[in-house]
Design a protein that fits this description.
The protein is mostly helical and 505 residues long. The protein has 18 helices and seven strands. The protein has helices at residues 2-11, 28-38, 46-64, 76-92, 94-118, 130-136, 158-165, 194-200, 211-217, 222-244, 251-269, 336-343, 347-366, 387-407, 409-414, 420-445, 453-466, 470-483; strands at residues 41-43, 169-173, 176-180, 281-284, 306-307, 320-321, 494-496. The longest helix is centred in the C-terminal third of the chain and has 26 residues, at 420-445.
Length: 505
């Protein structure tokens, strides 16, 4: 299907040549002017603008999303709701997705180094990226060492670190899952990860999965990445070309340009993260667990399990306290509405549960930050102890947010609007989405500075005033950008022909 779309994008701009020449051809001067104009400019319609903008927004946003691995018991509807919720959040607050991408990348980098250092005794430096080089300016690089990877113990890469963060490794006992091997984001990351602790104490063997095996589980392929890059490149190129030729750009294209820029940054930080992996890797426990006699052998309740681990050679085996689970892990849980309707058939309860079922997909994921027993939440924010890493985050996030908002300031001072009300609504909304990350950055930098209590109070009050207006400002910008298409000038409908040679949808 992607190949068909690619061929369609290559041949969509072909035009037919007239079979007969005009009866009265123009003179040489008019012919020269006509050919010179037609060689650079063509015509586009409002539908072309809308389709190109929405295709670019959807393609960039959908491809930038890298969801975490769902629980083994999650049904397809639960997974679909989480992905739609993530898509909505990425459309409303794309800066938030960039924040998660940067934080997860830094955490994955530290996990990779810690695993290679503790398990493989490899102190060599990891693969470099632009962000890694910036961080290395603040501390000494580890001394180089020979690679100690093997078939049984492959050297970890950034992909392994991302795979662990997204819930890719799950501890199992006799084929039954126990919990994912990751520490909760609600507390500081300990000096040793659960995975490393279990390996060093002989509870599990080191995972033998390689980077190629992880990428094989990923649903992202090279063709889709190339198509997204081509689409984004074409859109940015045609905007720059229009400015260079002094042709106006619509407000909708400005909004799309901001999405393309920010989602491109998010996609770059998540480049090594596997995409749409369906199931984790189960690491079988080598030390068996002794269960109480009153517990049935079918399964255990993962949410109520507490594991006490003893090292090999101890006097007794580890025990686990639990409550029985009603179904095996390979089966899928019933939905929220089905479980509630089993308990009550009252008409009022049916109405209330149905309303909760409709609202639940939106509010529940937004408040889901803690790590569950069987999966990592949608918006997982791993804690980072490194001062250098936190400093990098505090620098990058406000700067990226301000740049994203500054893109929307372009139409407010350089483009014409149909009315003064639309002009001032656009300017106010653009200032709000630009000021929000700037205020948060100022508060972060002055948090540890003494003697600035009054300034912090003013910044905090401004944040509480601006943040509730942020989603409304985004909606206003999108609404005005669509309303501006009702009356476009002839120069706005002109297009630059050479940009059509870049493959796009």
């Amino acid at each position: 299907m992607l190949i068909i779309l690619l061929f369609f994008s290559l041949f969509r701009t072909l035009q037919g040549v007239p079979l007969s020449s005009p009866t009265n051809p123009p003179n040489d001067f008019s012919t020269f002017c006509l050919r010179d104009a037609e060689s650079h400019f063509g015509q586009r319609t409002v539908n072309d603008i809308i389709i190109s903008c929405f295709v670019t927004i959807f393609a960039c946003t959908w491809s930038a999303i890298h969801p975490n691995i769902p629980a083994p018991t999650d049904c397809w509807w639960t997974r679909f709701k989480r992905q739609v919720t993530t898509m909505i959040c990425a459309l409303v607050t794309p800066e938030l997705m960039t924040y998660f991408a940067i934080r997860q990348r830094l955490a994955a980098r530290e996990i990779t180094r810690q695993y290679n250092r503790e398990i493989l005794k490899d102190f060599s430096n990891q693969s470099k990226s632009i962000l890694d080089c910036v961080k290395d300016l603040f501390h000494d690089c580890p001394p180089p060492a020979s690679s100690t990877s093997s078939i049984n113990r492959p050297r970890w890469t950034l992909t392994h670190g991302f795979f662990l963060l997204m819930g890719g490794f799950m501890l199992s006992n006799d084929g039954r899952p126990m919990h994912i091997l990751i520490d909760g984001g609600h507390r500081k990351t300990p000096s040793k990860l659960q995975l490393i602790y279990n390996i060093e104490n002989g509870i599990i063997s080191p995972p033998r999965i390689t980077e190629e095996d992880i990428q094989d589980r990923s649903k992202g392929d090279a063709i889709s990445k190339i198509l997204i890059i081509l689409q984004t490149t074409w859109f940015i190129a045609q905007c720059i070309a229009r400015w260079s030729q002094h042709l106006p750009v619509t407000e909708l294209e400005i909004v799309t340009l901001g999405f393309a820029m920010l989602n491109g940054i998010t996609y770059a930080f998540w480049w090594n993260k596997p995409q749409n992996v369906g199931r984790p890797v189960f690491l079988e426990r080598e030390m068996p667990i002794c269960m109480s006699s009153e517990v049935p052998a079918k399964a255990i309740d993962l949410s109520q399990a507490t594991i006490s681990t003893n090292l090999p050679g101890s006097s007794h085996q580890p025990e686990i306290e639990h409550e029985p689970m009603t179904e095996h892990f390979s089966s899928q849980r019933d939905g929220f509405l089905t479980r509630k309707l089993r308990k009550s058939r009252d008409a009022l309860d049916i109405f209330r549960y149905s309303l909760q079922w409709l609202v639940r997909p939106l509010w529940k994921p937004l408040s889901d930050y803690s790590v569950h027993t069987d999966r990592v939440p949608i918006f997982y924010r791993p804690s980072i102890e490194s001062w250098h890493a936190n400093t990098a985050i505090n620098i990058f996030i406000p700067v990226i947010g301000v740049l994203f908002g500054a893109v929307h300031l372009i139409p407010g001072w350089f483009l014409d609007f149909a009315s003064q009300q639309e002009l001032w609504l656009w300017r106010t909304s653009a200032v709000i989405i630009t000021a929000a990350p700037m205020l948060i950055g100022l508060l972060t930098f002055t948090d540890d500075i003494n003697g600035m209590d009054s300034f912090k109070t003013i910044i905090t009050a401004a944040i509480f005033f601006v943040l509730p207006l942020y989603p409304f400002a985004r909606i206003i910008l999108l609404t005005i950008s669509l309303m501006s298409l009702r009356s476009l000038s002839s120069s706005t409908l002109q297009t630059i022909e050479w940009t059509a040679f870049i493959p796009h949808l």
